[in-house]
Amino acid sequence: MSQQQQQQFNTNKNTCVITNCDSLLGYALAYRFLEGMKSNQDAEFSGRKLRILCRDKSGYGLHRLEEMGAEIKEVDYKDDSKMRDALRNVFSVLLIPENSSNRLKEAECLIKSSKNEGVEHFGLMSFVGVDRIHKSGDAEEQSKYRNFKEYIQIEECVKKAFSGNKHCICRHAIFNQLYYFMAPEIEGERKLTLPVKSDAKWSTVDMIDVVEAVYCLAKKAHSHQQQQATGSKQLYEFTGHNIMATKDMAKEIGEGLGNKGLEYHQISDNDMEKMLKSMRDDHRFRERPNFDGDVKKGKDGFWSMPIGKFLNEHNIETMLEYWCLANRGEQNIHSDDLEKVLDRKPHELRKYFEVNRDQFKRFK
């Protein structure tokens, strides 16, 4: 195929795919892309279609995304033939790894099918700190990081299948939005509990900022569809505005919520797991709220609010691994990637809670 024919072939591919849209991040990303496509605010997505993949349509509010124009496909990520069908006529894929016992195999199948179907650009969402698990003590200690190991293996698979500027990996810190699961305790008992030492330094990040940054990077990738991009980065690390000790985080959160007496208490991994499981079944996290939010102000809406269904075993394990690395001093990572991509400073922790104070007060 000549270069001219290849360019024409690529131009005819007008579909973007986002996986795992029955997850917190997947849903939020799909919403942002659909908003951009619907409003025609960005020429890079003119004429584009969005196909979102999920395991199960029911119970996640996916009908709202369908009403916005998304094509929804229920898939088995391990079924090669069905994956190839889901990836037909697709220019770009954004993979949010599944929270499942088959995460690695499912990702490998998706990556292979994407390659076979001629996908031009492949994006991956991963976690800050996955490259530091090898520093965490002996083999027994490293065995605690099963989920993070899978993320680093998926990163390697992506780099191998889509070399050079055909891939982009975005690692992010744990999201501020996960604090909603702790809101009943924060608002009801005026305390914050986490399995992290009070003096351990780490950061969280507003998922809205991360979603907006990924959208900006996707625009750049699509603008290069008919030309070779040069000098672009393939790895980004999206961290919070500041690294700070856990006790100082609690202070910032309390001040943002108008609760200056908020106390911090370290708890065990087991107790944290029990607490998150109790929130999974809590009626207050059964359905998405109805308010729209405000992206520019960093105000959460139905598309960025967590629901209990997200808290399966593997998601909880992954969060615990993140905090375990923080306890070992391996999450004291700060990058200016987010600020550079957004062309503004990321939302500060205190400001995030101040802007979203009303949402947190619902759990009082």
What does this structure look like?
- The radius of gyration is 20 Å and the shape is globular.
- The termini are far apart.
- The longest helix is centred in the middle third of the chain and has 17 residues, at about 205-225.
- It is built from 15 helices and 13 strands.
- With about 375 residues, the protein is of the alpha/beta class.
- The strands form four sheets. The chain has a seven-stranded parallel beta sheet, with helices on both faces.
- It has helices at about 5-10, 25-40, 60-65, 80-85, 105-115, 140, 145-160, 185-190, 205-225, 245-255, 270-280, 315-325, 335-340, 350-355, 355-360, and strands at about 15-20, 50-55, 70-75, 90-95, 120-125, 165-170, 175, 190-195, 200, 205, 235-240, 245, 265.
Q: Could you write a compact summary of the structure shown?
A:
This protein is an alpha/beta fold and 364 residues long.
Shape: globular
Give me the number of helical elements: 15
Helical fraction equals: 40-55%
What is the radius of gyration computed over CA atoms, rounded to a whole number of angstroms? 20 Å
Rounded mean pLDDT is 91
Count of β-strands: 13
Terminal-residue CA separation:
63 Å
* pLDDT < 50 runs, ≥5 residues: 1-9, 226-230
Note the main sheet: 7 strands, parallel
| Beta-strand residue fraction | 5-15%
Characteristic terms for this protein:
single chain; 364 residues; alpha/beta; seven-stranded parallel beta sheet
Topology:
Blueprint: H1 3-11, E1 15-18, H2 24-39, E2 49-54, H3 62-67, E3 71-74, H4 80-86, E4 90-95, H5 103-116, E5 121-127, H6 139-142, H7 146-161, E6 167-172, E7 174-175, H8 183-189, E8 191-194, E9 201-202, E10 204-205, H9 207-223, E11 235-238, E12 244-245, H10 246-256, E13 263-266, H11 269-280, H12 313-327, H13 337-342, H14 349-355, H15 357-361
Parallel strand pairs: 1-2, 1-4, 2-3, 4-5, 5-6, 6-11, 7-10, 8-13
Antiparallel strand pairs: 9-12
Helix pairs in contact: 2-9, 4-5, 5-7, 10-14
